[in-house]
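Quick start: what a row looks like.
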Amino acid sequence: MVNVAIIGATGYGGVELIRLLHAHPKVRLSHLTSETYAGRRVSDVYPHLSGLDLALEKLDPQAAGESDFALLAVPAGVAMKVVPDLLQAGTRIVDVSPDFRLRDPSLYSHWYKQSHACPELLKETAFGIPEWNRDAIESARLVAAPGCYTTAALLALSPLVREALLETDDIIADGKTGLSGAGRTSLTLPYHFPEADEDAAAYGVGGHRHMPEMVQELARLTTSDVRLTFTPHLIPMSRGIILTIYARPKAGAGPGELRDCLAHYYEEEPFVHVLPEATWPHTKWATGTNNCFLAVGIDEATGRAILVSVLDNLGKGYAGQMVQCLNRMIGVEESCGLSLPAAYP
């Protein structure tokens, strides 16, 4: 049994971590922080967690550092201020904020408009997609879980780029996500129900900050230039991501070969499901789970490959991914505490 602290426990991602870890057979929730609700019980803030009598506290790195592991579900700029103290205390970390995902601190400064507080830690950080980085995650002190869109893109593209089945100089990724991706406490007008209902809108057009993470990781798999256009859209649902990717296949690579490549890479993976021909995933299939569904086709008119990747932005795109990394770090099956069917409808 390991003691786990959740830093930022009352955002949507944090409360999903509580839900998953409360029933985890190898974890004891030892410390929950909330700047907004400190001094209250988590079940008072979230009545659906009735019976979970855990106190919420202000963030104190010294207190959090008494845990074996800390899961950081905090906004950009917060993690890098507390991670050094936690590491100094011997606490191992899974961070889902963007603070440690980009290896080049100048890229972080460009995309997040602030200097990195501890760039020396970027070199040792393990990128937190277990399907691709198990050994590094297992031994790491600090894991940066990429979350939502980056995970959806990399799970779909990485095998095909590694095997040189796609041209990488003109990849287009078109994403749709639900409102929970914006978080719980910093919602601006476009995310209010009367504004978002019966509506769809693009955002981050021409420069969304998840794009450099995608390019960074894909560039490690190929000697070719990686150029990727990514445009996300907000749609009126609570949770879920569907990402449609367009790319030119290499000469001779048809849909069967692309699908076979994905199926081969993920045949032993419990959470990545490659769908048969002409089957296209729905976001509801992944709701409340750590699953990702992948589908492949070819546009007969243009010859472009079409990849569709679906996951729950709060599951495989956030809390589920963090728990999967945690499981690897504590030496239990990655599926421990995550073998939940989707909530449907």
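That is the whole record. The chain has a mean pLDDT of 94. The domain at 2-146+316-330 is CATH 3.40.50.720 (Rossmann fold).
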